[in-house]
């Protein structure tokens, strides 16, 4: 129970369905003020109190589990290291993989519980052979199956997502009917451990001299002209337009975007938007939401798509499964794809699996 409306209603529904429910709030920082401040639905003392009050209304036991050390090592440190290496991570996927459905689930099973229920917007369906499948939520605008694409079959067997069949507006109405004071609490946004939402500023403060190269040049990728200097490659992500501070427009008057980041040399390469178009992707460290397809399998049905951002569009694709990952051909080019992001593969509404992007090949210039 994060302290937000979704997990509160999920807990209430699980209890109403007859399950023996215990509410768990995760203390992810030994100094909560160093993470999110304000009522944002994650990581603060306010949120812990909101979760406790919701548990009291529902009538279930409530505990706080301190996972701050594990969270810092598996999520925060990974976030910093990935940015320092010139890649763009998604800490929500890492938190689901390493914390909520690993550390929490393992402890829950050891204590005799059967499953972890969360307020994520996703659905579980069982195949005739009993294997669970992860599917998109009914509410497309709130669907969170992308950030759950790292869950394997074992984790899905011990998971419950009570909100997957309900639009968010109805969840808030239900919370109000149940007397839950979080019914109108704003949704959490951005990254929970970046207090003010300024990722670049947070990374600058935390990384500093730890980055492989904390300064370098901003270079026009077409002409090779040096356009300016920056204070650290960790302040940039591929596809970024704002905050480049290059001082003057391109000769054609069009804006420039970050095309490549070279953390060793400290070079950030920029160019026009059309140079961001990507047609093929290499993904490694695959995670399959069910039995793993054999190496050599091609996923190329009419409903096969790939999603590359948490709230991004789906792209029709052909996926070739390899021993150590997957090679993805995008039938609909994508823009601004960065190593470190996750590629989540769907067949219709079903999540097939995911992989971490290690390389992206741009479309050939016409």
UniProtKB/TrEMBL annotation:
The species this protein belongs to is Nocardioides panacisoli
HAMAP family per UniProt: tRNA_thiouridyl_MnmA
> Can you give the residue ranges of the tRNA-specific 2-thiouridylase MnmA-like C-terminal domain?
279-357
The family database entries (InterPro entries) matched by this protein are listed as: MnmA-like, MnmA-like_C, MnmA-like_central, MnmA-like_central_sf, Rossmann-like_a/b/a_fold
EC number(s) per entry: 2.8.1.13
Question: What's the name of its gene?
Answer: mnmA
**Keyword Disulfide bond carried by entry:** yes
Report which superkingdom the organism of origin falls in: Bacteria
The protein's name is tRNA-specific 2-thiouridylase MnmA
What high-level taxonomic lineage is stated for the organism?
Bacteria, Bacillati, Actinomycetota, Actinomycetes, Propionibacteriales
